TrEMBL record:
GO terms for cellular component: cytoplasm; RZZ complex. GO terms for biological process: endoplasmic reticulum to Golgi vesicle-mediated transport; mitotic spindle assembly checkpoint signaling. It comes from Ambispora leptoticha. InterPro entries: Zw10/DSL1_C_sf, ZW10_C, ZW10_C_2, Zw10_middle. Residues 242-446 form the Centromere/kinetochore protein zw10 middle domain. It holds the Pfam family Zw10_middle. Residues 535-619 form the Centromere/kinetochore protein zw10 C-terminal domain. This is 10716_t:CDS:1. Residues 714-855 form the ZW10 C-terminal helical domain. Gene3D superfamilies: 1.10.357.150.
Amino acid sequence: MPPIPILATALPDAFISSVIEDQQQLIEADVDWVDEEERSYKNTLLSSAPADRTSVMSCLQRIDSKILAFKTEVLEKINSNQGSFSVLYKNSHELRERINNLFTEFENVSKEVNDPEKGVKPKLFLSLQENHDVKQDVQNNGAVMEMLNYLSEVQLCVKRFDEYLNDARIEEAAGIVREMDSLLEISPIITDRRIYIIEKLKLKLASMKNILDQTLDDLLTRAIIFERIGGDNESGDPDSATHLSSIFVSLTEVNLVDMQLSRLKKNVMNYLVIPLLKHRQSWHASIKIEDDIISKLIVGSKNNGEESVDPLFASLTSIFHFIYNFIFGGPNPSLSYDSLNPSPLTVQYASKFGNFISRDLRELVIKEYLSHMIPIETSELISFEKIAQSARRFEAEMRRLEFMPELQSSEEEEEERTLGAYVAKVDIHFTIRKRDRLLELGRKIMMDEKFESVVIAEVVEQVRENAELRIQEETKITEATLTEKEKEHKSENNEGWDFGWEEDWGEDHWTSRSKEAIQNIKSEISIPEPERYEITTKSKALIDLTIDILNEARKLNVQSGIRLYNATLDLFDLYRAIMPVYHSSKFTDIPALAMMFYNDCTWLASELLKIQRQYSSSQSISSNAIMNLGNGIEEDGWGFDTENIDEVNSATTDQWTGQNVYYEDMANQLRELGQRWFDIQIETQKSLLKDFLDEMGGLHSMAREDRFDACHRVMKQIVHTLTQLNKVLKAVLSPALRYKALGLLVDSVIKQMIDDVEDLYDISAEESQQLNLICGMLFELEGLFPKIGQHKINMHVKNWEKYRHLTDILNLSLAEIMNRFRNAELTGFKTTELGNLICALFADTPLRARNLQEIQEGHPL
């Protein structure tokens, strides 16, 4: 064996030092004690049957440690005596043999331990694997046993569930369902078919829950029966009914109580509360107990003589007392409620049931009862307080029974929805209902298909005031003069002439002369006759409603008064929205209705401004002031309701005084609406007249008889149409407005006639005569206007003078035309228009040329 290359195989110093240090500690220790400990440990390992994997691996690790220790010891000795070892190894044959034998022995031991076929270590690993497999089989068998025990327990639960249901022990059955639910949450099943088995068990549990749910539902249905009085339904056998407490406990066990309480809530609402609200005038609720077994809640017709402060809330209280005591197991109703404490389950069920029903109940009571009981007259507000007190008492009782939760300070929004909050705001609801009633009445008036009319007589305010002032001044002067003359007469002392004069020239004589003088003044300074026109009774009714609402508003506080005032604005907004849309076809097709609508709008605007002036002039409106509103209506029955005016005037200072009334914008909007429909009707009539004129096809070829007849027929039709329209409008519009409307229509006709004549470039003498006749037919329209005064035809028909001169020009000679031109009578024509007419009427001559030149220089100043 060659020498061992000690230097080449030397371990790192740090590793050698560590090994030597550990080995030194072992040497210093008691060797006998170590050997004894090793032997004890090995015996322990050998006696363990079977050895676990951890112990075996620990043993192998100890063997490896011993080998390492031996190697370390050898290396240490060699390292510490390298020189001596090298010399001895070279010179001593015996040492070399011993070392070679040691290495050979080491190799043999290593083979015995690590040989892959016969070595101890592979066999040991194989034994460990077999041991592991055996252990795994044991564990699997244990899991199978645990699973079988689990399935056996599940099977037992199913069996007990069926037995409990058959014995009507529903609480125990519900407990079994809850127990099985818990078992499925900790399932020990670990087989390959675990998912399949678990799904099957879940299906079985669901089936058990459905069966229990159906059973509980049937029991609850038999225990709580809703039926019509006198119906064919049987009340059921009381002996077969399960106690309600057991039913609700079972429902709680399987988490089905919420669903059943929700169903109970629907039945209570549909069978009890809603019918009671619907028949609140004649129905009530009462509790009846039969044989201390069956408790009945009867909702039906009242017995004669039964009455309470508020029968509806008393009946609702009876309904919920019945539910609390007889369904949820509350205290015995025959005892004082204050002396008994309900069970926790009763409180729990009542609270949950309240969560389902309280909101719907509250909204239904408000919608179907309280909202209808809100007064629509101020005189009814006091009587509503009794209803408000009943509502508050009912709500307090519902909270005591846990059917309505106590609201926290942070739940302000929910607090606004309570019955107490609703009745506390009766002033707001009163004004809202009053507004709704106002708009309902207004809508009915507006949508009425009938258009009955009434005559309005109005005097232009400024003219009337000026006339009255003149009469007053002249009367004062005359009375002063007569008084002075009377004094002078009495001061004359003529005894010879005294006798007999007193009879004819006494005080009666001077009084008579004064009356005659004043009468003469009034006859000389006459107040103009009022202008009359028609409005519909719709407008009058709307103003009446407005005055009534404002009078009602003055009996309320400021905020409520303003809300009612705003309701009047809504009324006229509704008017502006409905009338022109709903009656559009009538206003378009019937001129009288369109013009009457214009009158309605302007009259409403005027009356609203009168109301505004009256309310804003002072804090208190007198009866006379209110009665003055709407003056000028010429039919009986018109005026404003002054009832309770004294109460209004004596109201406290915190009441609404009406100073906020402002109708300026609304008046302007109404005037604009009326003017728009006035213009629409004028344009409609203009379009009709234009269609007539278009039938003529112009004014050419008047020498032809057929053309002349066609134009003659159209002119007659136009005159007839305007005459008939004047008759229609005469009863509707005031004279000034009627003349204005006719003037616009006539002007549209003659303007087109002027254009048609001016379009002619060659007019023969015969055609000129025929044109004169055709154009002259429109002069009949002068009869539609006064001959004198501010409403003459030329005051309303812009082009009337021009048209009249045009008709004359058709028959005048050139010299006569030029005379009128030089006298500035033809200023209505442009110089080009006049020149074209002369060119069309007269042949081209030097005289015509000179005259045209003169015309082109412009009209004379």
